[in-house]
């Protein structure tokens, strides 16, 4: 029996295909990564079907590329060596919402739009990254460690126990989801590292190269009873980092982030290109966005305490920092921006990163807050050599863990139909990545062109990864040609 017939036995004839027209859907994404053609696509509806497909592919040494949605930006789901695309979009059930333990368990195909809607009905929300597309898989974003806009340490590790299918086809549960009787047992699967084995980091940032995660538990939080969003126009990054060092260790604020005028204009623009151009020219070089909130218990007192502390700090130590409910020159901004931060990007509107010129390439990493300006200067210098104006680069800086670290993200917008412009962006991206690595940038997610640059600098680490990969995936079927294997 041929592979396609066996796939049909596992998932049904309507849920597998080798039709080139169907396969074309998966050959590219929103990045400049070259297209790749798969031989098959299969859409399982359960972990058992995933296991059957992966076991079949392992026996026949067919590459498997897991894919949870149709919204991808970094080339990690393109079938670079052919094989089978494992489309998990049918696995789209929110399995349980556990208010007592502030936990939700859901499958890989659940999207941001779906999860946000179902949690809101119960009075809860997910601490989300900046404007995730509504059609994108929630599980994918957290496996890839997208930074949430909420900088409080408690939300830095939102993923909890999960279920995976190993490259050999075995189903495995980790952490406290591994106990007998789960999910009906007293253990609620909230602990990713006990009492079962601690494997959860094994799958983070692995780009589907170590196995297939079928469901996970995720931390959730109550929807705040009261919110106040504050803004400050910024022209000195070092100065605002000092301010954040002063307030964030005191657990002041929920969402806290810095956007330059390009990114903020792209997020706020409604009519294109007029609104974008006008906003980009009028906005300050940087805008600090700080949301203070009161949750379920004594929300008014919580807000009053944070406002009092902020007033004291700005009056006595940072008197030149104009922190207020309005950004000067932009009345009503507070009413528009908070819903944007608390909801996924609408499915019926092109994502703001793609509205600027049609496509973009983002370069992001971790560093110390005090080095943020140094990296901004360096990227601007390199971009200028390629004829890419610094004032056209989108920059987003996310404080992490009370500003002990930060994640700068540089976005280069380009027209994907212009081959010369695409080639320029690719060369600019490569040179900038190599230069920033030398300057001390920590790239925790080396996608595409970035992978060889990072792993060449970490030979012993790459060798260790290859040894681990050989143990768990001896035939190297799981998403090959990513990372260092």
Give an account of the 3D structure:
With 485 residues, this protein is α+β, with helices and mostly antiparallel strands. Among the domains are: 3-87, Uridine Diphospho-n-acetylenolpyruvylglucosamine Reductase, domain 2 (2-Layer Sandwich), CATH 3.30.43.10; 94-222, Uridine Diphospho-n-acetylenolpyruvylglucosamine Reductase, domain 3, CATH 3.30.465; 225-267 and 283-333, 2-Layer Sandwich (Alpha-Beta Plaits), CATH 3.30.70.2190. It is 33% helix and 19% strand. The chain has 15 helices and 17 strands. It has helices at 3-11, 20-23, 47-60, 112-121, 138-143, 237-247, 261-268, 274-282, 299-316, 333-342, 352-355, 372-385, 419-438, 450-456, 459-472; strands spanning 16-17, 40-42, 64-67, 84-87, 94-98, 103-107, 124-125, 159-165, 171-173, 212-219, 221-222, 226-234, 256-260, 286-294, 359-364, 394-400, 405-414. The strands form 4 sheets. The chain has a 6-stranded antiparallel sheet with strand order 12-14-13-16-17-15, sandwiched between helices. It has a 5-stranded antiparallel sheet with strand order 5-6-10-8-9. Strands 1-2-4-3 form a 4-stranded mixed sheet. Strand 16 and strand 17 form a beta hairpin. It is globular, with a radius of gyration of 23 Å.
